[in-house]
């Protein structure tokens, strides 16, 4: 919806040279805005807490500070999770998926992960979905 006249364009990211290690940067498959999705998961429960966006600098900061850092597409700035709310994320591990376009950031979460105050960003809106029966063991082996 970049051409939607009712929606102003997102602020652009700074164009400073990347501080991300070249061997890591080479593995990333970025979207046209230079971003990759970052799925954040709680270390102990394995719950998906939230999804954010990272560019090379946000990933560099996440890997080198141990704090989840994201690029805000709406505000056009970097933000560290919990910097203002106190609901911090302490990074335990970062993985890159097989396509290079999504990160899995495992954290220890202090407080709520969602800006609404919910524990996760997926707590409030459950959509109706048909729950398919799981196959029995014989079908699963085929």
- Strand order across the largest sheet: 2-1-6-5
In percent, how helical is the residue content?
10-25%
**Low-pLDDT regions:** 1-5
Can you count the beta strands?
6
Largest sheet: 4 strands, mixed
The ordered string of helix (H) and strand (E) elements is HEEHEEEEH
Task: Characterize the overall form.
Answer: globular
Portion in strands? 25-35%
Instruction: From the alpha carbons, calculate the radius of gyration and give it in angstroms.
Output: 18 Å
Count of runs of 4 or more consecutive helical residues: 3
Give structural attributes.
142 residues, alpha+beta, four-stranded mixed beta sheet, two-stranded antiparallel ribbon, globular
What does this structure look like?
The structure is a single chain. By secondary structure, the chain is of the alpha+beta class. Helix content is 13%, strand content 27%. The protein is built from 3 helices and 6 strands. The protein has helices spanning 22-25, 56-65, 137-141; strands at residues 36-42, 48-54, 69-72, 77-80, 89-96, 102-109. The protein has a 4-stranded mixed β-sheet, covered by helices on one side. Strand 5 (89-96) and strand 6 (102-109) form a beta hairpin. The longest helix has 10 residues, at 56-65. The protein is globular and about 50 Å long.
